Amino acid sequence: MHQSETSPTETFAQSFGREDRFALLALAGLFVLMLAASWQRWTQPLLDHGREMNLPTRILAGEHLYSDVQFLYGPFAPHFNALLYKLFGIQLGTIKVAGALCAVIILLMIYWLSRRLMSVWESAAVTALVMALCAIKSTANYIQPYAYAALYGCVFALASLVCSVRFVQLRQARLMMWAGLFAGLSLISKPEIALAAWAAAGTALLSESLAIRRPLGRAALNFIVPVLVVLALSYGFILRNVSLATLLNDNHVLFTNMPPQLIYFNRHISGLAKLPGSFWFTLTGIAVFGIWAGACATVGAALSFRRQGWLQTLRLSGLVLLIGVAAREAAIKFLGVADDVTPFASAIVALPVVIGVIAWRIWKARADAEPVSIEQRMLIVLTVFSLFSMLRALLNVTTTGPYAPFFIPTLIVVYLYLLFRAAPMFLVPSPQIRLKAQQVAVCLIVLLAFGLAINSVRRFRTINTFEVKSARGRFLTLPEIGEPLQAAIKFAEERTRPGEYVLSLPIATTINFMAARPYPLREEIVHPGFLSDEKEFDAIERIKSRQVPLVLVANLITSEFRDRVFGADYNKELMRWITEHYHLVARFESKHKQGANFDNEPFFILAYERNQQ
Length: 613
Known about the structure:
22 helices, globular, two-stranded antiparallel ribbon, disordered N terminus, 6 strands, four-stranded mixed beta sheet, 62% helix
């Protein structure tokens, strides 16, 4: 096996040739335009963003992750963000810059991976679509994601994938060492994302071992050792202050001892809670891909009027288009499938087929002593990574929601490869007409990416119009959320002193961060089921011992966790104790939506101050 002294960074940079410069400049221009047009509108303050802002400040204040602060993911992200705060200041802009840099890195890696399989402008179209659907989107983005653990985990997993794909190209054992290092870092960021990197590395090792007809033990060891070293060092550091039982049972790091509400939530995310509807949704994705492929081939054939074979192509592609449209419309009308279904919904069906076909070719080539193209060997590694990335969504692969940006980027690469390269091989026998169909497909994807980008910018600028600000930063959000949030932040600053605790329930520690007030509980997020009866008693003792002067309770509907309302459907005892020992002093709500009660959608915040003893 050949060895090299080159680093992954050098080989990565060398992979971009002169012909890539215009494409990369065009993508950079689109990124800058979208960033400027969506400026300061990336925050979703009522989701997990408050935890992401506030948790690193607690680490800087000396609290220990997992023992003093509950956290469901690996230790890398909060400690890394705490380091960023220490170096650059406790400002919201600090982690936003980190998010923007990660977005650039992810987009570059997606472009690099695409270029292993496709042309310059095909790869540019792929990257533009990832940018519009993942990097800067009105429903989710990389600048300020729902969890920086997911963002950093995605960066490291993709970096590991790049090294695995590069290994398929060069067969240098050193590359698997880097793949293992990045996979290990992904593991201590968000374990389920790291699973995709491990699967991709294993596929790369297996396919290359079959290709050269001998085991690659050294390369495998190069991958495994860095993973184990990173894992041992990071969790060895953590276990100095935290027991293993606390890590597993109270923080659910390895999905252990999960409350029923969290299991319900995960079933909802995966689509398993919505059977058989989610199954029909998945199958409809195949029909939508047929529409995309049929439409591109049909237009390509029409533009190739009178070329040899154009009429045959027109008939076949038109039939595929017609069947796809009919199947989609029938599924929407008779099976209740959502009309925003995309081809990616079919991933759990389509990806195993792609993997199976390539695996069969590799095995057959081995039996016949024939070589398998490097393109197919890289494609199977990329497809395996994509399959393991989307397992959490299983029967619910959409392009919306906070989780999509972290499992669909490589899915987009695989599907657009199938659209640009594989589908035309089946639908278009003539090479000249096939080229035209491919050009049409690229143009349509570019138009789709621009359309999605424009729509996201429009939503950003028309919906997120109210500025929430404090000494720690600013962001723009919906007025019905921003107005009560800003009032609560100002109230906390005025009615409490620096260093005094403020309890913001159930998912509102954005207030603590923006007002620079510490939070008293272990649970930064009080989701249904997170505070059991025993933990609820512990929470009350913490509130007593820290002499919390102010409690803020937000009206947040959490039906995705089954129990809808804090204090009514879950943690009733904690809310009862608060109303007995604190009195209501203020209500903050938007002037546009007033008068709502708990369990209704309009957002408001109630402020309780401690009773005088």
